[in-house]
Design a protein that fits this description.
By secondary structure, this protein is an alpha/beta fold. The chain has two domains: 148 residues, 3-Layer(aba) Sandwich (Rossmann fold); 107 residues, Dihydrodipicolinate Reductase, domain 2. The protein contains ten helices and twelve strands. α1 crosses α9 and α6 packs parallel to α7. 41% of the residues are buried.
Length: 268
Amino acid sequence: MVQAVVTGAAGRMGRAIISAIEKTPLITLSGAIESEDSPFINKDAGEVAGVGKLGVRITDSLERALKKAEVVIDFSNPEASMKNLEDASAQKKAVVIGTTGFSHSQRDRIKEIAPLTRVVMAPNMSVGVNLLLKLVADAARVMGKDYDIEIVECHHRHKKDAPSGTAIRIAEVAAHALNRDLDDVVVYERKGIIGERRPDEIGIQSVRAGDIVGDHTVIFAGPGERIEITHRASSRETFAQGAVKAALWVMNKPDGIYDMQDVLGLKD
């Protein structure tokens, strides 16, 4: 039985992950972490998640929780995720990271730490989104430079980062398929007299409203036609199930960094 620690245990994703763990064979919750000022400290993680008492109290100490853990599932914030990864890797514990909004320097640091343990890192862990990434790469290669690429992402009003990590990953995949450097071609917003669109641009537009869980649409617009590939998440359960799948998958892998394309066997 894989022993898992969930960070951000009282948040939306943390609760969904704890619920998913309880429904999944071969994995069990051994620890639950929140920030020291959280009102949920010392509460039963199962009761907070709405799955009944589990006998696992929410604490602010990952170090203590790691003593009997094998994997950490982390959906928190970039600063907390970096510390959690440092602590977990020091004890050779596997880590699944679904946090988004990392800076370039933080991403570089993650790449340095990953070889010390086993890390699955993905901005979106749903099966559908990862299939979408594969479709986007295929579509970009087929349509080439004759089609403009635009990405529209929509999330709930409480999401702190924009654009979403998933939208950035979609743009990275499209740019790679077209041999473009995303930093050179990405456009995050348009306003005023901006002139004609450059042929190599990849646009990303963000919407924040209501309780939208997560919508992503990729538009390929060419002469006389438009192709749209859309994924809509109606529940966080799909992300939670993917995170738990990743936690089980990574246990038998060599040290290194992986993504959900590896977990789902979608890489060519």
